[in-house]
Specification:
five-stranded mixed sheet; 1 helix; rod-shaped
Length: about 240
């Protein structure tokens, strides 16, 4: 009899896991020897896989859309990414409004990522009108200087001491304001002393109480007078 060998069951194929994407910081440069293509757009792992599928179709099947232009140096309105290496998959984040790098396998323009609006040139404000210069106030007229009125003439005469013994003497002293000449005289008319304003004079020995007079001429031409009495103590 013919022996039929039992068939060995066929093992199902074991799936090969895809390499995990590696995120490379923006400071790292594109690896040497890689063929740069156009930059990428979109956000999230779904956008990365979609762009990766389009790129693989371009590389191996000739598919994909062309003529979108280079994204290098462009700024986009949302966060994008740059695929710098395929095996292993290396993705570099590109923040919004940051110039997109060169040497990327993906192109955000083909994924429909909107470009950031360019800032408009600031409008230069029109210069403000020059402020009005205030009119200086007119100077206040200075009243004419008035000549001071002349001082009222005054004269004073005193004796020191005011009381003397018999045959005693005293010193007469006087002072005046607003005068040009003063003369001191004894009761008999004899002149004891003279000066313009201030002065001193000594009496002769006195035996009785005596009054001495002073007469001054003022600056205005008038006269003023004064007197003092020296008493003599008899006891």
């Amino acid at each position: 009899p013919k022996v039929i060998a039992p068939q060995t069951p066929t093992q199902p194929p074991v799936p090969v896991p895809l390499p995990r994407p590696q995120i490379r910081p923006p400071s790292e440069s594109t690896p040497q020897g890689e063929a740069p293509s156009t930059p990428s757009g979109g956000g999230g792992i779904g956008g990365i896989l979609s762009s990766l599928g389009q790129m693989l179709g371009k590389l191996f099947g000739g598919g994909g859309s062309g003529g979108s232009g280079s994204a290098a140096g462009q700024t986009f309105a949302q966060n994008t990414y740059c695929i710098t290496h395929l095996d292993p998959l290396v993705v570099q984040p590109v923040p919004a409004r940051t110039p997109f790098p060169s040497g990327c396998y993906n192109n955000p323009l083909t994924d429909g990522v909107p470009l950031a609006q360019r800032p408009q040139a600031p409008v230069q404000p029109s210069p403000a009108p020059a402020p009005m210069q205030p009119t200086p106030p007119s100077p206040t007229p200075t009243p004419p200087t008035q000549n001071p009125s002349p001082l009222t003439p005054v004269v004073t005469i005193i004796s020191n001491p005011s009381t003397v013994a018999v045959n005693g003497i005293a010193t007469l002293a006087w002072s005046s304001v607003g005068t040009t000449k003063c003369t001191v005289s004894a009761p008999n008319g004899s002149q004891i002393g003279a000066s313009v304003s201030d002065g001193k004079a000594t009496t002769s020995p006195l035996t009785t109480s005596t009054t001495f007079s002073i007469l001054c001429t003022t600056t205005t031409g008038g006269t003023i007078s004064g007197q003092t009495t020296v008493k003599v103590k008899t006891q």
